[in-house]
Amino acid sequence: MRIRIKFCGLTRPGDVRLAAELGVDAVGFVFAARSPRRIEAADAAGLRAAVPPLVDVVALFMDNPGSEVDTAIRALRPTLLQFHGREDDAFCRGFGLPFVKTLAMGGGADDAAMARKRYPSASAFLLDGHRPGEPGGAGARFDWSTIPPLPRPVFLAGGLNAGNVGEAIRIARPYAVDVSSGIESAPGIKDGAKMQQFVEETRRADRNE
Ligand SMILES: O=C(O)c1ccccc1N[C@@H]1O[C@H](COP(=O)(O)O)[C@@H](O)[C@H]1O
């Protein structure tokens, strides 16, 4: 099966259009407080308009109040929610959309191993390199050989870039790869050449080259 690609933390319509032209499967928009990639609900419509049909739109949250999640959903119309904080299963499923829950791999595989019971409603799990209790999205990679068996598709994230995504795929064989800082020239500003190289290296690993 082809490995899916998600680009996250986009803030500019032109970057969204290029991601779609490169064949990326999903684009993510950050609503987490204090993120340098955070977009406001007022910006969401313009970014949403740049996404062509058949590309997933992901809204990312980290311990945002439910009212903020509702506002973001109304503005962006995402197809998938991504929760990066201490949200529980009931909160995550309460918005009536499929969701992916991030698990912290920076302290070992314990958090991920417990996820089977804690998030029965999750459509997928995203494994990031931060430590449990710490915010994700820090560009931190983890030991890709430590992923425990999980009952849902795995999105591999955390410090990926064109230089290491091939090795990550060969070791972890994830359902999808997710990248943000590894395709940027500055936080929230994507770099076209890095985006293209990331897609090419993912496809190369997909073909077992
Ligand atoms: O991108 C952010 O600013 C962010 C803020 C808070 C939580 C998560 C965030 N980003 C997500 O983290 C993973 C890994 O990102 P990276 O490739 O290591 O930079 C990814 O899903 C980002 O979208």
UniProtKB/TrEMBL annotation:
Keywords recorded for this protein, A-Z: Amino-acid biosynthesis, Aromatic amino acid biosynthesis, Isomerase, Tryptophan biosynthesis
Pathway: Amino-acid biosynthesis; L-tryptophan biosynthesis; L-tryptophan from chorismate: step 3/5
InterPro entries reported in the protein's UniProt record: Aldolase_TIM, PRAI_dom, RibuloseP-bd_barrel, TrpF_fam
Residues in N-(5'phosphoribosyl) anthranilate isomerase (PRAI) domain copies: 6-200
Biological process, per Gene Ontology: L-tryptophan biosynthetic process
Xref: Gene3D superfamilies: Aldolase class I
One MF term in the entry's GO annotations: phosphoribosylanthranilate isomerase activity
Phosphoprotein in keyword set: no
Entry superkingdom: Bacteria
Enzyme Commission number(s): 5.3.1.24
Reactions the enzyme catalyzes: N-(5-phospho-beta-D-ribosyl)anthranilate = 1-(2-carboxyphenylamino)-1-deoxy-D-ribulose 5-phosphate
Family as reported in the entry's similarity comment: Belongs to the TrpF family.
Family matches, as HAMAP family: PRAI
NCBIfam families referenced in this protein's UniProt entry, alphabetically: PRK01222.1-2 (NF002296), PRK01222.1-4 (NF002298)
Name of the molecule in the record: N-(5'-phosphoribosyl)anthranilate isomerase
Species name: Arenimonas composti TR7-09 = DSM 18010
